[in-house]
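Shipment paperwork, digital attachment
Item: protein structure file
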Amino acid sequence: MLTVGVGHAISRAELSQIATSEREMFDVSNFSGLQGIVGILRKLLCKIIVTTTLPSTATLTSITAKTTKSSAATSVTTKKKETLVLKLSKSLEQSNLQSLCKGCIIDRGIGYSSHPNDCTKYVQCFRADGEYRAKIMSCPFGTYWDQDKITCWHSHLVNCTTDACLVTQKDSTFAMRDHCAAECELLTDEDNPSSYIQIVPGIGPISRPCAPGSAFDKSMCSCAKVSKSWKPHVECKPSVSYNFNEDFADQSGNNVFAGYERVIITENGSAKFSDGSRINIWRFANVEFGEKLLLKLRFLTYNYGAVEQPIVTNCYGEYGEGPSIAITTVEQSITIKIKTELGETGILRFFQVPGFNNVTMVYDGQHVIAKVNGKIKSTALIGNIERRQAGLLIGDCDGQHSFHGEIDYFAVYMCLPDEDVFQRVAPTKGRDIA
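Attachment content:
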């Protein structure tokens, strides 16, 4: 039995009791540290699987002895043994792949992990038939997998410890297998040049955005840089939208998967939250929101629970970084916060009203603007929104303080529709706008 402790509050005594021996016990300071022991865990898992799964030589000999009464029977036995070994090999292969999913930052729905031996590949983990499965994926030509960004990135910008160029002579070359330019699995998004379509097993087509200032190039099978003056003439649509009328299905048309725990759909068509409730939209894990973000939601709060309750955040665990996007309630007030890579934070506060509260929050790279129950406030703020490895969390932040109430609409835009609330305003920090 292998045991791995993550964080600073682990009990080594408890890990020791669970593990088969001290050799099978590990501890790391955070989830990023798991990457450093993936290779060791993989070898130990393979050893355990082979030891406990493969039949012994004596068993196979016994099986062979009982079935080899003639030359014809011997042939049949050999084929049975080959079939058995083939099935075991396939089972072990999938088990080894599944072991690579251990330590994924995203451990539900869809997760991604680095390949231990090849930076041009990564492991995509997804749920199918009630269990997690793994599939080896290839990055586009000229890119390496970046576990920090959770995406394929320019090879010269990725710290790849298995890069062949680190152990070869200058001006030498090496072959790149499985990188035929005609075999691009990504599809062009006809509605938006600055995004592309990826077919995810078990989920279906998902629209993924390119980095700001780039557009998808089918010939390169990746997002390529374009002129800063180029602007796509496309309608601004939500990246994800939930109305909770009957279920948790995404209404945006992008089929975005979200994990939910202890959330109930009410007869009135709203999502009810209580202790331990949460919805995690993994689609926004490690997403570069840049300087464009719009959130719309409608919620009501119950008169109990913690003093401060999270409505929408992108917290990264109890011991991780605080949110760079947060809409919370503190007693009878609503607080909106955005933090940028420049270290600055924009904060707006509003009073709640009885019943449902309507909130629209916009960040445009110059201001944080919010419209709450018809009242508008803004504050000056510049820079890209800080990236977080967590997805967007509804009703939760650190796992300790839960939202108690209902939400009957929630939408995320990574563009700015042309509405009055999105018009540029003067930096009126905390001042109401008539």
